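Posting for a labmate who doesn't have an account.
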Amino acid sequence: MELSETQKKELIYASKHWPQGYVRIRALALLNLAQGWSEEQVAKIFQVSRQSISRWKQAFQTEGIKGLVVHPGRGRKSKVKPEEIEDYVRQSPRRFGLNRTRWTLQALAERVPCLKGFSAFGVQKVLIRIGYAYKRGQPHLHSPDPLYVKKNKIWIKP
């Protein structure tokens, strides 16, 4: 594999500084190819198939470093529907037949149709992925004074 000086510098930079580790590995593999190692030898060193090395080489030659990055949309499609989860999370569990005021991960796994069969940890990962984070319930301060809200605003800065 022949590399121009700019391609070589690009691969060296990617092998040391690229955020995704798999891109650094691919860059190192291609640098080894450029030094005269065969695809079989490089595949054995990096414990991948020869076809993977060939694909990385072709992707780099056509797209540069961007060709070594995994493109979105690959892999198994998610069964999770964020809109459906949001419909449940934003309502009280009592509306869905649970005698509680707050959702638990297990309760979500039991009630939300797209989360059926998920473990509590799996539900947690899904919630984080769609932008929800755990927040501990806060005590609610209430006063019987009808002017409480008006008086409280005096002390709270806008």
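Reply:
Got it, the structure tokens are right above this. The chain has eight helices and no strands.
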